[in-house]
Write a structure and sequence with these properties.
By secondary structure, the protein is mainly α. It contains 17 helices and two strands.
Length: about 425
């Protein structure tokens, strides 16, 4: 079953990339990722430009450039090979998703989830991008799955490993660094029931120790290279200013091509314009200082427009959940036949996803099974401040989980009623022990 899922996932993802051919060129922020990866591969470090003008940077999260650099060392600078690497990582998402669903809801839902993850149009399209959405999805899924396994059977090694996994997720997508706090709150009660108060504190300490061990070396490197406190990237302030400045709130809806409206910008690096323009600006200024400046300017603007917050939040929530192929816009891929049925897919699967939400909130173990909803909610909050098509990509597998849960419950209900039997909720579901 697992090999079949991987096979289908690989075929669909390769079909999308194959349209571009070996001459694919990265666009948008993927160009910066590719530039840094090639510099890493040829020994210039995590930098923009090449020696002797190489400049240390933290413009993008480090995990994807580092993985890509390992490939470039073997095959030289071939962008098509780096996209194939993302396809291979994307093919692992159905396996991680099936494992998470088995941990939360049982094997039947796990099977559904694996297949939904293999054919989900958004996940397939995201795998053809070097921007890192696929790697972020895979690492986030891995961290959520390990979190459920850790809470089910708390051990020191599992707590530390879960923290390391969350650190890995943060190094692929900075928003993931905020989730361990949610995980700690979610795990507080079940850990107290299984290991007691003192044991719970030790477990959570190990969780955050693993997080620090994973992210700490990169943060220290940034402090030495950029002479500033930069946990992961120097992109947070730029993105905040791009989304919260004059013009972005007045016309907050994207055009048909998925682009933000252009407005005048007086930031020292030209705002947060993605791609080559921003890469050129980063080379001309101290990126950490420019990022901090942009973040402060955005907060000043938002504080002056508090009355507009509800309106803008409603618009951005609608954009966050809008079915569209924006997640790969500007990454050098040609139009894909999967883009057209994406809206149809979203409409058909919406009722199952909504029922999956209800299903997560019901039953004796609803708190244990609510972790995917908590992670989705955290990314929704991030999407209010940093609206963008890729903010939803990391949690798309969790949406597939909800669809699978709704599909399995619908199948069970139809099968039971077809036999003329009453539907009785399952009394035994996987979850953490109820007592010591």
């Amino acid at each position: 079953m697992g090999m079949a899922m991987i096979g289908v996932a690989v075929v669909l993802r390769l079909a999308v990339v194959w349209q571009a051919g070996p001459g694919i060129t990265p666009g948008s922020e993927a160009a910066i990722t590719d530039d840094v990866a090639w510099n890493l591969a040829r020994g210039a470090g995590f930098t923009l430009d090449a020696a002797p003008r190489a400049q240390a940077t933290a413009a993008v999260p480090p995990l994807v450039p580092w993985l890509t650099s390992l490939l470039y060392r073997a095959v030289r600078h071939r962008v098509f090979a780096s996209v194939l690497l993302q396809c291979a990582i994307g093919a692992l998402v159905p396996l991680f998703l099936a494992a998470l669903c088995r941990s939360l809801f049982g094997g039947a839902v796990g099977a559904w989830a694996g297949w939904v993850g293999a054919i989900h149009p958004s996940l397939v399209l995201a795998s053809g991008s070097l921007s890192g959405g696929t790697t972020a999805s895979a690492t986030l899924l891995l961290a959520v799955w390990l979190s459920t396994e850790w809470v089910r059977a708390p051990r020191a090694g599992r707590a530390l490993g879960t923290g390391l996994a969350w650190g890995l997720a943060g190094l692929s997508h900075p928003a993931s660094l905020m989730v361990p706090g949610v995980v700690a709150a979610w795990a507080w009660r079940p850990l107290g029931l299984t290991v007691g108060g003192a044991g719970r504190r030790r477990q959570l300490a190990l969780l955050f120790l693993g997080l620090v061990l994973a992210v700490g070396p990169w943060t220290i490197r940034n402090a030495l290279a950029l002479r500033a406190f930069v946990p992961v990237t120097t992109n947070a302030g730029h993105m905040l200013w791009a989304a919260n400045r004059p013009g972005a709130w007045e016309v907050p809806v994207r055009d048909s091509a998925g682009r933000e409206p252009r407005v005048a910008d007086d930031s020292p690096t030209g705002g947060a314009a993605p791609g080559g323009a921003r890469g050129a600006d980063l080379r001309r200024s101290h990126e950490a200082e420019a990022d901090a400046w942009a973040g402060r300017r955005a907060w000043v603007f938002m504080r002056a427009r508090i009355r507009d917050w509800p309106r803008v939040a409603a618009i951005r929530l609608g954009r966050f959940w809008r079915p569209s192929p924006e997640g790969t816009h500007g990454d050098g891929l040609p139009p894909s036949p999967l883009r057209a049925p994406l809206t149809l897919w979203s409409v058909v699967t919406l009722p199952f996803a909504l029922w999956g939400v209800v299903r997560c909130c019901r039953g004796a173990r609803r708190w244990f099974q609510a972790l995917p909803l908590l992670v989705i909610a955290m990314f929704m909050v991030v999407g209010l401040a940093y609206p963008g098509p890729r903010e939803r990509v990391p949690i798309e597998p969790l949406v597939a989980l909800l669809i699978a849960l709704g599909l399995e419950d619908t199948r069970r209900a139809w099968r039971t009623r077809a036999r003329g039997l009453a539907l009785v909720p399952r009394s035994r579901e996987p979850g953490p022990p109820a007592s010591r």
